[in-house]
Amino acid sequence: MTFQTLFAASANHIYIGNTIWYMIVFAILLLLVKHYAWGPVSDMMEKRRQKVINDLDSAADNRKKAEVLANEREAALKNSKQEAMQILSSAKTDAQKTSSQIVAEANDDAAAIHAKAQTDAAQAKAAALDEARAEVADISVTIAEKVIARNLSADDQKDLVDQFIKGLNK
After folding, report:
1. 44-93: per-residue pLDDT in tens?
2. SS3 annotation, the chain
3. What span, in angstroms and rounded, lies between the C-alpha atoms of 162 and 14?
4. pTM summary value
């Protein structure tokens, strides 16, 4: 018998012993696959499922936190804009007050300088008149001495000068 004839003969006849043997081997293989391969693969798939669920939950939490932070930043930006406006307004008000104060002080200083100048001018005028009186008195005494050819006493000179000045004022 050749190999082909044996194969063909066995294909036509199914042996129950071989079938039982194949089923036992298949069951043993199933148990081995379940114990050594199916369990670890199932555990790995469960861990992967849990990781995906945790990652999705974490992403949702992070998105919510990002929204909260964005809202807080927006509120802080609005507050900083309001504070900046208040600071600018306060600075403008302070600048106007300072400007008004500087102008008022300058006006006061100018008025004081003007008053002092008037006082100084009046004093200078009085000093000039006194000096002019003294010079006029000296000149008039000199002229009178020459005219009278004699010396006058100090009281006489003073009386003459006073009479001369009264004549100038009129």
Report:
1. 899 999 999 999 999 999 999 999 999 999 998 888 888 888 898 888 89
2. CCHHHHHHHHHHCCCHHHHHHHHHHHHHHHHHHHHHHHHHHHHHHHHHHHHHHHHHHHHHHHHHHHHHHHHHHHHHHHHHHHHHHHHHHHHHHHHHHHHHHHHHHHHHHHHHHHHHHHHHHHHHHHHHHHHHHHHHHHHHHHHHHHHHCCCCCHHHHHHHHHHHHHHHHC
3. 173
4. 0.37
Judge contact between 158 and 138, C-beta under 8 A.
no
pLDDT in tens, 33-52: 888 888 888 888 999 999 99
Q: Could you identify the residue written with the tokens 């050594």?
A: 36
User: Which tokens belong to 10?
Assistant: 């066995």
* Domain boundary assignment for the chain: 3-169
